[in-house]
Amino acid sequence: MKRPRVLLVDDEPDLLDLLEMDMLRMGLDSARAGTVADALDQLRKGAFDLCLTDMRLPDGEGLSVVRHIAENFPNMPVAVITAFGSAESAVAALKAGAFDYVEKPVTPEKVRGLVRSAIKVPDRPGAQAGDRPLVGHSAAMCQVRALIDKVARSQAPVFIAGETGTGKEVAARLIHAQGARAESPFVAVNCGAIPENLMESEFFGYRKGAFTGADSDRDGFFQAAQGGTLFLDEVVDLPLAMQVKLLRVIQEKRVRRVGGVVEEPVDVRIMSASHQDLQAAVSQGRFRQDLYYRLNVIALRMPSLRERREDLPELTAHVLARLCAASHRSPPRLDEAASRALQGYDFPGNVRELENILERALALSEGPAIGQDDLDLVPPDHGEARGAGGEAHPEGGLQAYLDAAERQAILDALAKTGRNKTAAARLLGVTFRSLRYRLERLGME
Asked: What is the pTM of this model?
């Protein structure tokens, strides 16, 4: 099968290198361009399945690339990279024809999610649930695998609980891959990342002319997942009004597009997940009890990394091998001090944090082995260490110190707003999307 091809447009060589590595890991071919002129030349030379372009380029704006593709290649999805907090640029890109955008700093998770929503990523031999299989043979993981095998044979809704970074989506993809719907789409939706005023059109689609900018009919998540699985990540973040509409669709198995008058039948298996306590959300009135019973038919809990420390050596070896595969580099080993440091670390961000730690360590290490200093771990009792004069010293490195300060500022804002993330983001002077990214990066979800 021909591999999808992606055009990457950016004037930062380091970022292009990272993006090319991500494409390779996903089984995609890519070409790169550093200017608007280079991008237009690449588009003349060959066919692409997706374009990812920066908004600011040396010889013009990324909007020029977006408009050129919209006019000449209407079936090619194009997404843009915007500077942090540049909401106006993102809106302009969407109006020009971009299907989505990603804010800097660009992370592998953001890029992979965007690419998967735009094109069908080819399956690779030996791949299990995408890039991150469930690794480990601890008792906890053996129980998870056994339950996944049973659940895959059913069509009942599944709710997957667990801390941030434990692999909830990986488990959902495994259930889908082992079930009767494996050949049909798996559509993953981050419920907390969709603006409330766009939720209905994103979930159910819309008809041409339904609102300003609706120039053609568009499918929603339910139509995109027809015959397959719809995975609702962070489902607790859905507003109550949307929960009512979702409940009706699940009960009736029919959706009505925004601006439409006829209900369309849909056949999807619903899986959902959250790091929050779903039952507690019901007790607090944040989540409908009737929807809770519809979603929580089968419960699956993903263990934290702290609960399966015996899996750390196997996980570490797997992650290092995957990170080194693209560059054809031999995976380095961890020296004894680094191994002890990992075993003693709390991993608030779980497996996702382990991946980030090892990716950073690979970049910092110079010899054949990764040392403790390369890991740059924050000590478990880390805080602002103060000297005799009361000044703060960045123990554990500058990044650790900055992370601790950022973590404390977010905690203070959440405390002042009663853990209302929207209000906390406003208090901190950042967007809600940015706050969610920071919470995830710092392992605070």
From this structure: 0.58
